Amino acid sequence: MTNQIKKSTTVPLNWKEVWFTNCPMVSANNVDQELGWCREEFKKIGVEYAYFRHAPENNWYPHYIHNLDNLIRFGGLYPPIHVHADIRRTVLLGATWVYEGGCMAVRAGDPIYRMKDLKGRKIGISKSLNTIKNDWWRIQEHMGIENMLKLNDMTMDDVELVEFPYPDDWYDKPEMLVPPMNNPSELWMRRDHKHDLAFRPLETALLKGAVDAIYTQSKVFQHLQEATGRIKMIEDLSRYPDYTVQVANTPAVITCTDVMAREHPELVIAYMKAMIRVGRWANENKHAAGAILNRQTFYLDAEDTCKGIRDVDMVPSLSAQNLQCIKIGKDFMLSHGYIKNDFDVDKWAAPEFLEKAANEVLKEEWQRNSWSKLPQGGGLNVEGTRLG
Fold it and tell me: Where in the sequence is the domain holding 231, given as residue range(s)?
């Protein structure tokens, strides 16, 4: 792993700047990239907050191997599990559960209507040839397929898995490395991500008839793919009451390095304060949040995005349910060989940062509201006696 990490170039460490990354999924971080509240929070303590690709020295891989000490990542579940298990120690700060689950997609014209119709048929599964990053697409597909078969009294022995290796190398393409990007939206506009099949590596194989079915993210790619008139869904994990079968690179999680948490907790708290404020705003303004997220996620359009986040609590938490989902994802990765080392998720989680951030937010709001209710020209002296 050491040689692989050397391939990831980074700027020298400077604790007066904090880098953030972007994962094209539902998170308060992605809403904040339009609001800018996190940048304001860091400005209060004299720290620059910027997208990690803002610096030309940084390539894409810190998002996957977290080799920047002053980076905070809010994104998909599987890469940070891989990092904490096999690369370096990080701290779990919060999570956002998204009701996505996963769908089984087939060609619209095929006489396949139920999972049982796939007995003896071919299901595609991707394999990234990129040895630096975690193969989170494959893990998601693998887990989703296994759960769907289980729920329909089937096993992997009932179908034929067909592997499709692909380069997964867009990170290294010259046009993706220069010029530096100031905003993640530039990346997704440059990629035309809603139509770029690099983000849907199995769709071509399905449409060409190389396989009979593929796993796809429900509520995300589902409507985008169905809109083509060439694809339909025969199973949807998000419709089951059992949330434990819906872990699919979710919940989205917030992580930082153990170095940042230990040596600069004020940076972590500043970030978490902003995530709480942005999350509350997004909960109260779902249509506006949906319009912002639509620029960075794979939903069909802004309205579809709004529907997708309707029941999502955008304020990150380390709830018992979130931690259970993270354990499920970690255990699957370990049992199927996607990580080498085990770890305790409860010990990974550090709720004290979220708790302190929440207390500071409440305190600041109380002080702000108290001052706003004072008579004009009035005030308090240091003992609390009214002046004026």
Answer: 103-177+193-245
79: CATH: 3.40.190.10
Question: Is position 35 within any domain?
Answer: yes
pLDDT in tens, 53-81: 888 888 889 999 999 999 999 999 999 99
Predicted model pTM: 0.90
pLDDT, one tens digit per residue, over 320-339 is 999 999 999 999 999 999 99
Residues 201/126, Cβ–Cβ less than 8 Å: yes
Q: Are 9 and 58 in contact, with CB atoms under 8 Å apart?
A: yes
Question: Are 151 and 240 contacting, i.e. CB atoms less than 8 angstroms apart?
Answer: yes
Is the distance from CB of 105 to CB of 231 less than 8 angstroms?
yes
User: Is residue 33, in this structure, part of any structural domain at all?
Assistant: yes
Q: Are residues 238 and 253 in the same domain?
A: no
Structural domain total, the chain: 2
